[in-house]
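dumping this here before i forget
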Amino acid sequence: MFLSAHYSGEDLVPKFNAGEAWKKVFGPVFIYLNSSYDGGDPLKLWDEAKQQMLVEVQSWPYSFPESEDFAKWDERGNVSGRLLVRERCINDDYISAKGAYVGLAPPGDVGSWQRECKNYQFWAKADDDGYFSITNVRAGDYNVYAWVPGFIGDYKYDVAMTITEGCEIDLGELVYEPPRDGPTLWEIGIPDRTAAEFYVPDPNPKYVNKLFVNHPDKFRQYGLWERYAELYPDKDLIYTIGISDYTKDWFFAQVTRKKDDNTFQGTTWQIKFQLDQVNKTSSYKLRVALASATLSELQVNFLTSLV
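structure:
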């Protein structure tokens, strides 16, 4: 299966108009077989296969495919640069975009790369100082997109670029200014497009996947969404700013409650906070960063007014 909506949703199912031509190269697919002749620990085979995987990653793009649609390494280009963050309410100086994900994707609006699924994208992770290098990019027209863990929003470089065979493009320093209307009054979690920092319960013993025991990706255990109803059987989650701890008190997923008759009930979470001083001439804005959503509707109420 080369294309799937699993973990992504309907948005990433390619849609084609009548008579629309489309072509995309998948592969080549590498299958590695190893064996142990001495009846030793089978995990050593797994470790050896992972080492071979690292070798193959460095060997891509391969030179042996004969298809004209598979661009060889000398038919591709490279892009490099540095991404900085300017957070005027935190620091007057520029901040290195440590661990930023910087990519080339087809031209579009800010964040359009998230729903683009028919063409090619090329991504790299910036180092601690914000430097990035995107290598082996197919020739074509692209925009530069990025997002930075710890900062809300998406970045797009205003200038479109054309990648040609063998090109080496240095973008220099790029600056991302996250959306902001003023200082942060309170915040729950980390805007890093995961929910790993929130409370992830232990799985039902019937569903335990041993691969994810004592693993950072504990949220991948099966059936965790059902634990919400066990933790909150009658009333929904209430989080109090300044008192609650999001690592213990904020369930990692906003889910429905499964009832005894196998029906599902929508849930309403509350965030309680107090502002000692309110400037009635200023605007206060709530920003919500989602890791993922499917078949969902999010409603936000302040007191009794629907926003």
